[in-house]
Amino acid sequence: MPPPGDSAAHRPIYTRVVTRKELATDAGLALVVFAVTLAILATGGFGEPEPGQRELDALGVVLAGLSALPLAARRLAPLAAYALTTAGAVGLLGLGYPLDLPLGPGVAIYQLGMAFGSQPRLSRRGMAMGAVALFVPAVAAEELASGYGLHPFPELASLAVMAAALWIAGDRTRLRRERIAELEERTRRSEREAERERRLAAAEERTRIARELHDSAGHAINVILVQAGAARLLHQRDPPGSRRAIATIEQVARSTIGEIDRLVRALREDDGADPPPADPAALEQLVQRHRAAGLTITTEVAGAPRALPHSVAWAAHRILQEALTNAARHGRGSAQVALRFAADALEITVTNPTGGNGQGPGGGHGIVGMRERATVLGGTLQAAVDGGVFRLRARLPYTETAP
């Protein structure tokens, strides 16, 4: 287990859970190293046999097993596996066996580099590095003590270089695995963030649809209120005009009920279909509806009408709807609408003379809501009264590809 205070990021590799597959792999590796070691000893090493070297016998087999089989636990106890394999290899070299390639200690040193290279406590890392550094002196001491003669200096130096290289290779492997694990965790975090953003966007869209429902119903009620007042006033002196006002009320009410049904379906969690986006034809229908309600409207369209992105289409529809409703409620019964389909944005301009008080639309959430819709799309909206004329300008960039 890691010592108290060690963070998970600096937890050495040998503390993690070892799987059965890894244990089976280590056991297989230990058997392969044991077989290769026996083969080296049985054939007299690499090259020509040296005078006085010892042939493979029962003791050699035991020491070969000691130098290889502990590798089966190299992930569970890397330091113990290194100590045992080194003891077996030092015994073979000290007794004169032709172990030209101490494969078992090499694998154990590589594992130590992986396990202790990231150890945050210097005492543990230093202990592991010290144990590796003692490998060559231990071989030399055993050879001197056994009386079989000391290996030449180049051979001992090559053992030292091999041990250092294997430690560094193990440490580099650990760093590479940590980087891979970090990238995988970053990918998983990005996927979670994307999922969270998707859910947040869905929630925001449902809130936006709820505002659409509120705006649609509010505008319809305003139109119905105006037409109902006109029908009441014209009932005696202009019965046909009164009937037209009542017909407009019926038409607006039916249209509003259909729109409310569509938006409520969009608010349901189990309904993944978005409401159909408004297009230039829908904007013209909106103008015609307000004309039928009694508002005199002149229109001007510049540029080639194009299919609009969903968000731009809905924003344009609602902004124009709000502007025309304000013209009917606060103006003098007329309005001018200019639509310009530019290369990068839809521009809407609505002007209408204000009422006798010279004031434009005031109170409520109309202007605030229109400006919010434009701002969300990265556009702008300006509304002001100048010389008894209320003027609204909106610019809605094409922020997404049109369907």
Summary, kept brief:
The protein is of the alpha+beta class and 403 residues long. The chain has helices at residues 20-42, 58-68, 78-94, 103-116, 122-133, 135-146, 153-237, 239-267, 280-292, 310-330, 366-376; strands at 296-302, 334-341, 345-353, 380-386, 389-397. Helices cover 62% and strands 10% of the residues.
Q: How many runs of DSSP E, i.e. beta strands?
A: 5
The largest sheet is: 5 strands, mixed
Distance between the termini: 58 Å
**Strand fraction band?**
5-15%
Strand ordering within the main sheet: 1-2-3-5-4
Question: For this entry, what is the oligomeric state of its chains?
Answer: single chain
What is the CA-based Rg, rounded? 42 Å
- Protein structure class: alpha+beta
- How many distinct helices? 11
Shape: rod-shaped
Poorly predicted spans:
1-15, 269-277
Give the helix level as a range of percent.
55-70%
Chain-averaged pLDDT: 76
* Order of H and E elements: HHHHHHHHHEHEEHEE
